[in-house]
């Protein structure tokens, strides 16, 4: 067994530690904090987020899950229908807050690599002749699309869908937890990927590597409403938010090059791992920092492969009974990527 002492955590990019520049900035803010002076670092961060996304206003929240929930609550009322891709993070991993807290009726549609066909969206909106169908207020998209292995939504697609929804008076929210990864993959600034939406949630704790937090961006009126809603959920009273914001600002300004390296390492791992007998990885679909590996061809269940991998010092995420998800982030080196593929091969060959 070759567990050379190094634990390689490919379970999620949410465990990234802040960079040393971030720690220094956080400490400087914490030591220089002036009571009752307002949140200067938060203001700087939200202004930067507006610049990046092309939105008017932004709000710092504790998590991207809360940013998505608050966005849904601000766009839609109880009993309204919200359209989501069926394997979107909001649908599979956010505890159904949209139903239990916001009273929303979720309409789940199957997409292809995160993109729902516009004709399916139109059919789901339908027309309420006798007012017996829920009123559709919102469509949510996700870029990159986590469950599709970090798939990038084509720019032409998001533009077309946003324009079509605008015509019908339906808002479109982007779960952009990893929109920075999408921008890097498309060699594009973030703004064209976000400015056609009515609101965007950005995660500061994934590839951006800040300590914590998320940003919700939208029009000034939308953010005023979101901020009131966030207060009721306990998300608008982050008393030490400046400390988080100081790290977040460095993340927004400096992490794009690091994210590009995460993508390169994901491909490095994927090209080694897809040579292992019984492991199926669509190499051409590995465009960002996530690799989905179907291990059913090995004759082993994915949870058994994961158990063996953990034993060899590699963490992955059990996506379903056939599939493991490997996520790359700044704490993973080239060596780690190669070692992880080697340990995967060992794990499959030996119990
Ligand atoms: C991680 C993630 C979230 C939630 O972020 P948290 O900060 O963990 O709440 C939302 N959407 C997507 C696509 C994610 O990957």
UniProtKB/TrEMBL annotation:
What are the protein's UniProt keywords?
Answer: Pyridoxal phosphate
Asked whether the keyword Nucleotidyltransferase is assigned, the reply is: no
The Gene Ontology biological process terms listed for this entry are: glycine biosynthetic process; L-threonine catabolic process
Q: Which GO terms describe its cellular component?
A: cytosol
The residues covered by the Aromatic amino acid beta-eliminating lyase/threonine aldolase domain are 9-295
Q: How far does the signal peptide extend, from start to end residue?
A: none
Does the record bear DNA repair in its keywords? no
Q: Which cofactor does it need?
A: pyridoxal 5'-phosphate
GO MF terms here are: L-allo-threonine aldolase activity
Which residues does this entry mark as bearing N6-(pyridoxal phosphate)lysine? 206
**Superkingdom of origin organism:** Bacteria
Which Pfam families does the annotation name? Answer: Beta_elim_lyase
Listed InterPro entries: ArAA_b-elim_lyase/Thr_aldolase, Low_specificity_L-TA-like, PyrdxlP-dep_Trfase, PyrdxlP-dep_Trfase_major, PyrdxlP-dep_Trfase_small
Q: Which protein family is named in the record?
A: Belongs to the threonine aldolase family.
From the Swiss-Prot or TrEMBL record, give the protein name. Aromatic amino acid beta-eliminating lyase/threonine aldolase domain-containing protein
Q: Which organism is it from?
A: Paenibacillus contaminans
Phylogenetic lineage: Bacteria, Bacillati, Bacillota, Bacilli, Bacillales
